[in-house]
Design a protein that fits this description.
- The complex is a heterodimer of chains A (about 140) and B (about 425).
- Chain A has about 140 residues and is an alpha/beta fold.
- Chain A has a single domain, classed as 3-Layer(bba) Sandwich (Glucose Oxidase, domain 1).
- Chain A is about 20% helix and about 35% strand.
- In chain A, the strands form 3 sheets. In chain A, strands 1-12-11-3-7-9-10-2 form an 8-stranded mixed β-sheet. Chain A has a two-stranded parallel sheet with strand order 4-8. A two-stranded antiparallel sheet of chain A has the order 5-6.
- In chain A, a hairpin with a 4-residue loop joins β5 and β6.
- Chain A is globular.
- Chain B is α/β, with parallel strands linked by helices and about 425 residues long.
- Chain B is built from 18 helices and 14 strands.
- Chain B starts with a helix and ends in an 8-residue tail after the last helix.
- The chains are: A alpha/beta (about 140), B alpha/beta (about 425).
- At the A-B interface, β2, β8, α1 and α2 of A face α2, α8 and α17 of B.
Chain lengths: ~140, ~425
């Protein structure tokens, strides 16, 4: 079984693992997700109707309303937050969202996680050490 | 992160438990950003009053509990002190003076009015609008702000030349009682240059033109800063308000440069900081058409039930325009028409007679909220028409309705005829 290791910068510490949910499209919080279900609801989004609950969410970054953090905050309180998040582009929206979601979070990777991690891969995130271990689903 | 002695004192609890929690959040947030320090701010626009169905569930625990969880990210309940920085409240859950809205949510009206009194007494000014810059909070060039509301942030940075990132509910809460926010992103002068060039090949003149340009470029540049070439006609507050709101909906644009218009933009080269653009985009008829079609992609039925005007909240000039279009006419019995403007401007609309004209035509003038925030529309609404790219973008996702986007004149015609006959002309 092959594992691929990525290194990144700690955003929020902690260790977590789970199945990857990957999108190449930026995500809206307010107006983009339903915190009660953990589903993406933005009409044009490739993940529309898909839930990130208990997934390792891998995405380019945040877009849209300043309600981003509040909506992912509500997702934490509703128990629908992802288990960890990995993203490429630091903005205030996604960084504050990661902080209030209180899940392990990493960014600034040595290689682009979007080109390595695929839906269904098993991903272990050690944010304290800045390490992501990916086990490919077909390996 | 490097903290000053005063900030270290706040973190150590010298100013009480709430300020300690606030500084703890700012440090966690600053480190998540990779910021080196905090910056002082005396201009905060945030959201405090419990609004929206999910947060209202926590309202029974009281406003200190709401403030602790949602404004400080503190699981432990602390007592909110008076604010340290000048702080304004943005848009809220409902318009409690509008009978239909009040009737639909008596409980929300009570929670909101209790919240207004609680946070008002702590020093949060109840502007209750997404457009604080229309009702007296007009930061000056270079001022460090901590603002939420993506459409206000892009206006603050671009049109006013003040400095803010897109803050959230928790960070503005922490900023209000500490007077600090991470020194990151658009607070730093070298991050305010453009990286993308948008070459505009068609005339951008009326409100709809500006909305479509905003919606198109948000998709193009996402979170990056564009500078525009070829915008010949002079924009106004209302056009740039509409334009910025659209760009901040389809993308995450927080700042743009228009040479000769935005105060930090002497020239295209200056906006780019003397560097070549990382990417150049062309905006022509094809791009405009694509933005129009995307905004109208959820609309299937021409039978319109609800016409929503005023997102971001209308200026008094816009309320007057709606009144002129409606003068002596009557909307269809099958439609409802809601026009949103800040409460302070509603007072002027009332005194100027515009509210009466709109009412006589069968419409309503509302304040404090919008359908996307309140999730309240007239009963049975299936098809909406709006002059707001932002509302047309969000309402179908949030409420499942169909949305038509067009000019204010097209929207008023739809209210009168009950049918959508607008289009890209």
């Amino acid at each position: 079984m092959t594992t691929i290791t990525l290194r990144g910068r700690k955003v929020v510490g902690g260790v977590s693992e789970g199945e990857a949910l990957v999108t190449s499209e930026t995500i809206s919080g307010w107006g983009g997700i339903d915190p009660r279900t953990g589903k993406v609801v933005e009409t044009h989004h490739e993940l529309c109707g898909v839930s990130f609950k208990d997934k390792i969410l891998v995405f380019p970054g945040a877009k849209g309303s300043s309600g981003w953090s509040q909506y992912f905050h509500l997702a934490r309180l509703a128990g629908t937050a992802p288990k960890a998040i990995l993203y490429n582009r630091t903005t205030t929206k996604v960084a504050l969202g990661a902080v209030v979601m209180r899940v392990p979070a990493l960014t600034d990777f040595d290689r682009d996680p979007l080109s390595i991690i695929e839906n269904g891969d098993w991903v272990r995130v050690d944010a304290d050490q800045g390490i992501v271990e990916i086990t490919k689903k077909d390996s | 992160m490097k903290l000053t002695d005063a900030e270290r004192g706040m973190l150590d609890g010298a100013e009480g438990a709430a300020v300690q929690k606030a500084m703890d959040l700012l440090v966690r947030y600053g480190e998540a950003l990779g910021a080196e320090r905090l910056v002082e701010t005396n201009n905060v626009c945030g959201t405090f009053v419990a609004a929206g169905p999910m947060i209202r569930e926590y309202a029974s625990k009281g406003n200190d509990a709401i403030f602790s969880e949602f404004n400080l990210d503190s699981s432990e309940q602390v007592t909110m002190p008076s604010v340290k920085a000048y702080t304004c409240h943005l848009i809220m859950g409902i318009d409690s003076e509008h009978p239909e809205m009040r009737q639909l949510s008596e409980d929300a009206a009570r929670v909101q009015s209790e919240g207004e009194r609680f946070f008002g007494a702590k020093g949060v000014n109840m502007l209750s609008t997404c457009t604080p810059y229309q009702v007296g909070n007009v930061p000056v060039m270079g001022e460090h702000c901590a603002w939420m509301e993506s459409s206000a942030v892009i206006y603050c940075n671009s049109v006013l030349g003040a400095r803010t990132n897109t803050e959230g509910r928790e960070s503005t809460g922490a900023a209000s009682i500490t007077g600090r926010i991470p020194y990151f992103g658009l607070h730093i002068p070298e991050n305010r240059f453009a990286s993308h060039l948008v070459d505009v090949k068609i005339a951008v003149d009326d409100m709809m033109d500006w909305g479509l340009l905003g919606y198109a470029i948000g998709e193009m540049v996402e979170e990056d800063i564009p500078v525009f070439r070829g915008l010949a006609s002079q924009p106004s507050l209302i056009k740039l308000k509409h334009f910025g709101a659209a760009a901040a909906s389809s993308g995450g644009v927080e700042m743009y440069h228009i040479p000769g218009v935005t105060p930090e933009t002497k020239s295209e080269e200056g906006a780019l900081g003397g560097k070549p653009p990382r990417q150049t985009w062309v905006y022509g008829p094809k791009e405009q058409r694509a933005a129009y079609e995307k905004l109208n992609s959820t609309a299937k039925s021409a039978e319109v039930d609800f016409i929503m005007l005023g997102c971001p909240h209308n200026s008094i000039e816009q309320v007057w325009q709606v009144a002129r279009l409606l003068e002596g006419r009557r909307i269809s019995p099958n439609t409802s028409l809601w026009v949103f403007t800040p409460r302070a401007l509603k007072e002027i609309a009332d005194r100027s007679g515009y509210t009466d004209v709109i009412k006589a035509a069968g419409g309503h003038v509302l304040s404090d909220t919008c359908p996307a925030i309140s999730r309240i529309m007239p009963k049975g609404t299936k098809v909406v028409a709006t002059d707001s790219a932002k509302q047309a973008h969000y309402l179908p996702a949030i409420t499942g309705v169909q949305a038509w986007f067009g000019s204010v004149a097209d929207c008023v015609e739809a209210a009168i005829e009950g049918r959508w006959t607008g289009g890209l002309r």
